[in-house]
Write a structure and sequence with these properties.
It is elongated and about 100 Å long. It contains 16 helices and 15 strands. It is about 40% helix and about 15% strand. The chain has helices spanning about 15-20, 25-35, 40-45, 60-70, 75-85, 85-95, 105-115, 115-135, 170-185, 255-270, 285-290, 350-355, 380-390, 390-395, 405-415, 425-470, and strands at about 140-150, 160-165, 195, 200, 205-210, 215-220, 225-235, 240-250, 275, 295-300, 315-320, 325, 330-340, 345, 370-375. The relative contact order is 0.13. Among the domains are: about 15-115, no CATH class; about 135-295 and about 400-420, no CATH class. A hairpin with a 2-residue loop joins strand 3 and strand 4 (about 200). The longest helix is centred in the C-terminal third of the chain and has 48 residues, at about 425-470. It has about 475 residues and is α+β, with helices and mostly antiparallel strands. Strands 1, 6, 7, 8, 9 and 10 form a six-stranded mixed β-sheet that branches. It has a five-stranded antiparallel β-sheet with strand order 11-12-13-14-15.
């Protein structure tokens, strides 16, 4: 008989959360694979044992943020709601069903005002170090690429801004080699204070800046779509562990960020042998730097940016002995000068080109003169082409779809990295690092769990086999 008006709160049932969480749950794997007490060493100097009110456990704060990134929850507010209702999340934080979960504003304040970029960076490095100690990293071949994250900025709220031309890390080295090349050809070297030589002017540029988030950059997706975005320039190994990340505005070219990212990762993992990149990194400087460090760049074919109507670029042959260019009509283009951008200029004789039968396919200049340029570091590009055709080059570049591209796909599909609610470069950088730290932690925990299960099964099999042998004896 159903008793009307029965209040279910009158029947108290004690629930043991520990028994409710499956043994193979992801959070169990994570909790058993890493010691979170290390966080106390990182943030201990930010707390006082004598002053102030009792604080929320910093391990709980970091675990809340890791839960957000592990399960791709868009915001902290929603993360707290999910934790309040999810028994597994409560178990992971050490909270029972009756304890109140910390307010989302408390977590947000801690990561915006208290835990700076250096602490977040150390958390990322700590998890990566745990993966290295477990023997799961394979940094002999690394993969570098960038993906764009849509910024929290309205495209209609923008303004024009003039910025100075960014200095390149190799400007001094390039200028010295340019001057040496000019002197070898009887030309005057460039002066350091010479800003306008041979028509090449170093100046600033006008960019479109968001008034909502000035650190974001205008990124063009295809021909018609554009948005304000950030670029996450990332390095991973063959096992898809993220080794490093550098966040920049969305309008910064991939090759510009290469030096900063490469120096940090190469210093951390000197055993790197091959660096695999896409065509955006195929520049003379990048190829030169990798070769000079005793490593190999694995780069793809890059379509030359030449006119479609004329002769093919490979029909203009460089003669190294005579230092000249031979055109498709077997005429000589002699050396003219080396410009400040590092390109040797080879020019034809106008009186010969005026009567050339294929002049329309070669040049449309008013004085009938053909100009061909060749970078002083072009030999490194040719060496990179040899690597591209080698078995090692083909094998490593073919792994991009399974490594760095898979990392970006998982980050966007499973961990909500298509867009960010954070603003400013510093906050987005911390957000990306925590997300990649969570991805590394997930992979580390999964691999350790599999190894543990395999060892258990192997021990059972060995014990059974030994018992059987003894019974036979």
């Amino acid at each position: 008989m159903l008793e009307k008006g029965h209040n279910q709160r009158d029947s108290i049932e004690i629930i043991n959360i520990e028994e409710r969480i499956p043994k193979d749950h992801l959070l169990r794997k994570i909790d058993s694979s890493i010691d979170f007490t290390y966080i106390y060493d990182l943030v201990g100097n930010l707390y006082s044992a004598e002053k102030g009110r009792p604080s929320i456990d910093p391990v709980v704060l970091f675990k809340i943020v890791l839960l957000q990134h592990l399960y791709g929850i868009p915001s902290l507010r929603q993360t707290i709601r999910e934790i309040d209702m999810n028994m597994a999340y409560r178990w992971f934080l050490g909270y029972n069903l009756s304890e109140p979960i910390p307010h989302f504003a408390t977590v947000s304040y801690a990561f915006t005002q208290r835990y700076d970029s250096e602490i977040v960076k150390k958390v990322f490095q700590w998890i990566l170090y745990e993966a290295e100690q477990a023997g799961y990293l394979s940094p002999e071949v690394v993969f570098i690429d960038a993906t764009h994250i849509k910024a929290s900025a309205n495209l209609k709220k923008h303004c024009k801004k003039a910025i100075p031309q960014a200095a390149r890390t190799y400007d001094k080295q390039l200028r010295d080699e340019i001057n040496a090349d000019r002197e070898a050809h009887g030309k005057k070297p460039f002066r350091d204070d010479d800003d306008d030589i041979d028509g090449d002017t170093i100046s600033g540029k006008i960019i479109t800046t968001s008034t909502t988030d000035p650190d974001a950059g205008l990124f063009h997706k295809g021909e018609h779509q554009k948005c304000f975005a950030y670029g996450a320039h990332t390095v991973c190994d063959k096992n898809n562990f993220i080794l490093g990340v550098e966040v920049r505005a969305g309008n910064v070219h991939d090759s510009t960020v290469f030096d900063t990212l490469y120096e940090r990762v190469a210093a951390r993992f000197p055993e790197i042998e091959v660096i695999t990149m896409d065509a955006a990194y195929k520049t003379p400087w990048i190829a030169k730097r990798i070769f000079d460090d005793g490593r190999l760049p694995s780069l793809p074919y890059k379509r030359p940016m030449t006119a479609n109507y004329g002769h093919k670029w490979y029909e203009y042959v460089y003669d190294e002995y005579y230092d000249c260019i031979i055109c498709p009509e077997y005429q000589v283009l002699n050396y003219s000068t080396t410009n400040r951008n590092g390109y040797r200029e080879f020019k034809s004789k106008p009186y010969i080109c005026q009567t050339c039968p294929t002049r329309e396919k070669c040049t449309h200049s008013h004085n009938a003169q053909k100009l061909v340029t060749r970078h002083i570091w072009h030999d490194y590009i040719e060496r990179a082409e040899d690597v591209r055709h080698s078995p090692k080059g083909k094998l490593t570049y073919g792994l991009r779809s399974q490594t760095i591209e898979r990392v970006f796909a998982d980050a966007k599909e499973k961990h909500a990295m298509r867009y960010t609610h954070h603003r400013s470069l510093a906050r987005v950088t911390n957000w990306v690092r925590l997300k990649f730290a969570a991805m590394n932690l997930k992979k580390l925990a999964t691999w350790r769990w599999r190894k543990l299960c395999f060892n258990s099964l192997f021990s059972i099999f060995i014990g059974f086999y030994t018992k059987r042998e003894l019974s036979v004896i």
